[in-house]
Amino acid sequence: EVVLTQSPATLSLSPGERATLSCRASQSVDSQLAWYQQKPGQAPRLLIYDASNRATGIPARFSGSGSGTDFTLTISSLEPEDIAVYYCQQRRSWPVTFGQGTRLEIK
Amino acid sequence: EVQLVESGGGLVPPGGSLRLSCAASGFTFSSSLVMSWVRQAPGKGLEWVSAIWGSGDNTHYADSVKGRFTISRDISKNTVYLQMNSLRAEDTAVYYCAKAGDSGSIYDYWGQGTLVTVSS
Predict the structure, then answer these.
(1) Listing from the earlier edge strand, what are the strands of the sheet with A19-25?
(2) Per residue in A1-34, pLDDT tens?
(3) CA-atom Rg of chain B in angstroms
(4) Could you say which residues from 37 to 76 on chain A have a Cβ atom under 8 Å away from some Cβ of chain B?
(5) What single DSSP character describes residue A82?
(6) Using alpha carbons only, what angle is made at residue B103 by residues A96 and A67, rounded to the nearest 5 degrees?
(7) How far apart (Å, rounded) are the C-alpha atoms in residues B87 and B91?
(8) A46 contacts in chain B (CB < 8 Å)
(9) Do A50 and B51 touch (CB under 8 A)?
C-alpha cells in the first residue's frame, strides 16, 4: 500500500500570503496524484488531478506540481474562503490511498 | 447537473448489516465508469473503501473491509450499492459515494454522504 504523508499538519497564514502544502509518497506514484479541498460539513472537492491539472472551475491561485514521490499544492494568494482541510490522493496502485490532511487556517 | 445522492445510513448494532445506495444522475452511467465509496470517521481523514467498474466484475476493496463489504451496481437504475455486513464500531463514519473522472479513480464528483453509526 502506498502511504501518503502530508506536511505540515496545520498551516496558519494571513490573507494574501502564499501557502505551500506537501505530500510525500512511500513509493513512486508517477503523476497519478490528486488534491482535494474539504470545508467543514461538506464533501471533498477536487482541486488538482494528475499532479498539476486544475479541475473545472478551480481558481488559478491553486496550482500543483511534482512527480514520483514528492508533490506540492500551492495557493498563490490566500483568500478567507480557502479555510479547509486539504488531502492528497494517489491512484497509481490499489488500494487508492489518501494522505492524512493539512488543515489550513487563516490568521 | 451531476448529482450523487446517498441513502441507507443509520444506527446499527455491532455485527449487524446495512446496505447503502447511491443514486446517480446528470451523466452517462456507463459500465466503463469507476464508482467508489469513501468514508470519513468523525473528526478523521478520508479513507477509500471500495471501487467498481466494468460490467461489475471488476471490484477492489480496502483491507479493512475486505470479506465484509460488497460493492455492486445496477446500470439500469443508475445506482451503486455498498452491502456492509459484520459491522464494527470502527466502521462508524460518513460514507461518500464518488464518481471518477476520465483519469480513473480521481474523484470529480461526490455525494453529500450518509452517516453510519455502529453502536449497541
Answers:
(1) A4-7, A19-25, A70-75, A62-67
(2) 999 999 999 999 999 999 999 999 999 999 999 9
(3) 13
(4) 38, 43-46, 49-50, 55-56
(5) G
(6) 70
(7) 6
(8) 101, 106-108
(9) no
